[in-house]
User: Fold RNA polymerase sigma factor (Sigma-70 family) from Kutzneria buriramensis.
Amino acid sequence: MATDTHRAIDAVWRIESPRLIAGLTRLVRDVGTAEELAQDALVAALEQWPTEGVPRNPGAWLMTTAKRRAIDQIRRNETYKRKVEEVGRDLEESTPDIGTMVAEDDGIGDDLLRLVFVSCHPVLSTEARVALTLRLLGGLTTDEIARAYLVPESTVAQRIVRAKKTLTKAKVPFEVPQGEELQARLSSVLEVVYLVFNEGYSATAGDDWMRPALCEDAMRLGRILARLARREPEVHGLVALMEIQASRAAARTGPGGEPILLADQNRGRWDQLLIRRGLAALETAEGLIDGKPGPYVLQAAIAACHARARRFEDTDWERIAWLYELLAEATPSPVVELNRAVALSMAFGPETALTLLDQLMEVPSMKNYHLLPSVRGDFLRKLGRLPEARAEFERAASLTRNERERTLLLDRAAECGDTA
Assistant:
């Protein structure tokens, strides 16, 4: 029975912790303190629920318990009277019966959105933003984040602690930015969510090709953000992109976990529900655009081209190449150019795209990017230049940190025959 209760507490915590921390941050104006209060409420639940039973509204129970702890803490600081009155009024408006009270929904959406912008604030490093977001909004423990990113737990813990201190020291306001600052900050938020998704979709290191749990966390964060920022096309574009990409998950690996490339995937295994959700989100995003589409809308449109093709041979590569050209204008990047080269190769032949790849090889940031020699090897193989192709696949294998991908690349090198 106690085990069932602990499972229930774990499930409730995953669902309610972002709302709880967001609401508490609004009151105490400090993310670190808010998380400590939320953790105190969790400890209280672990102590009381196994004997008293899970309350009818567990989220409200946790919030009220945490607010009472906040009052106790506020009594010990210099702003005692003002803060106690503020939190006390909040409690008085709640139903007194802690076991049956109604959840406090007023302003909770705004609080969550504020917490998203605080967690992803540019004052933090990218690694810190990712860790703090997964901790506060994903409900993950430091151990879970560490295992997902294959780093020591102590490293993640330090990142989170430093992030909270940095936010406090910088006096980052608990608010949604306005005007031009909103767009600048929103790009940081979307970047963090997409970084989490990509790490799950194509793990950069380790033994697994994919980490589905990270994809699910990112999609959940994206859906929350889409509900909170309904008029932002890029938010819906990111959700569309993730939904469509995730639809291929079951077809991307074989029985032993080995990678299966897009051309070889069984499209009957693609999740049609996720595809429909993704296409609907893309339609919403495109309906909100005022001017040129942003990078996430464009990437979602590219993913939609793949989703709509019943067979690999039916893919509209010319449209994809055109969309990558627009993406390169919106966000110039050698990685975008690499993907554009692939689309050009599929649409017009590898000779057309090989020159573009040769130019990318001179870009310093691409020197050790394993996908560049991988793509170049594929082009050379199609042109019948097998010894050169094999050398490129072997170089790509030496650069990747993912064991599954290394095996795939070495297999492709072997298929090109002996270079001797």
